[in-house]
Amino acid sequence: MKFILTLCIGNICRSPLAQGLLAQQLPNHTVWSAGLGALVGQPADPLSIQIAASNGVDISSHRAQQINSFLCQQAELILVMEQMHKTQLEQLFPSVRGKTFRLGQYGNFDIDDPYRQPIEAFQTAYASIAQGVADWVPRIRKLS
């Protein structure tokens, strides 16, 4: 399992953070991120960039991209932020069934969208994303 995709809505807050953390912890893997309704071409939210940097992760070069069939085909694992994202993605691209999971699956949690909220919402999202990444990384390593 070498190709991993993270997914949220706009691809500027949560999925870039997850992408950055996963890429940092899995340097021999290719990690992408995308959005179901991406703000295509936009950089990561300044608060996501700030929180990532304060945790040693650089997502400053990130640019949002829309989910597409190529990314779905290439990804061996797709990690979404909310159950709703999984449902929507599977409706749009039925071929992703069986390889799409919530980042918070093992802790049984969704990661709320901090977009246009105070920094505290971004800190909470980051903590949840970091927990989800910590839960997934050992499993991904075993499968790689």
Automatic annotation (TrEMBL):
First-level EC class: hydrolase
Domain (Phosphotyrosine protein phosphatase I): residue spans on this chain: 2-139
Recorded catalytic activity of this chain's protein: O-phospho-L-tyrosyl-[protein] + H2O = L-tyrosyl-[protein] + phosphate
EC number annotated for this UniProt entry: 3.1.3.48
Classification via Pfam families: LMWPc
Keywords of this entry: Hydrolase, Protein phosphatase
Family that this chain belongs to: Belongs to the low molecular weight phosphotyrosine protein phosphatase family.
Name of this protein: protein-tyrosine-phosphatase
Annotated source species: Rhodoferax lithotrophicus
